[in-house]
Write a structure and sequence with these properties.
alpha+beta; 9-stranded antiparallel β-sheet; single chain; 5 helices; about 35% strand
Amino acid sequence: MLVIPLFTSAIIPEKVFVVVKNYDGKVSKKWISVEDKTILENLMHKLIETGEFDVFLPVVLAELERYELIKDADEIAEEIMEITDRNFAEMQYLPFIFNAFCLIAGYGSNSWIETPASILSIFLYSIMNKLLSNSFIHSIMETILFYIYFYSLFIPKTYLPLAGWIIAKEGKVSTLGLFGYQSMGTEKGNLVPPAIFILYKFVGLAITFLWREREETYVVGAAVAVFGG
């Protein structure tokens, strides 16, 4: 008698790798479900679109604490809210972002944070190209600045006192602070230059999802000053 074995295949749930970086350099990494990723993204988008930080910020932090990606969500919320004086001006709509003592929330596809060291190396490189072009010293300095730049990107990020958030593809950033509510989106396309936002004395989190060969970073917190576009 021919016996045909019956095979049952277990369906492995799809997972998303998430990295959460705190402003003081702490990094948490974990696999979460696609459903949990969707919950977090929906909350962040509601925060970004509405600017209702009082409503959605505590919920976002509570979800991150539930996934054990942060600790002391209430304490982090207090640190973020302490930067603002809560006396917000009327909403303003500008073609760029310029705000102070403000809450900030945003996301960016193919985006990354430049550290103070990497920003300084870019600045020095641009000056060097103007003053020391086509010389032996130029070649040496170029190599040194190259290593400083990439080393600063791979060490744990520290967002104080200055950081540059670069968004290469689509994204949106909203702020609520001394100069009111300001929000702007970035366009998608290879020929469109990246958007750059300078964050001065940032307190908060950067949440990066790595999934299906895509990388998307969400930023939520507060800053003494934000400028860019």
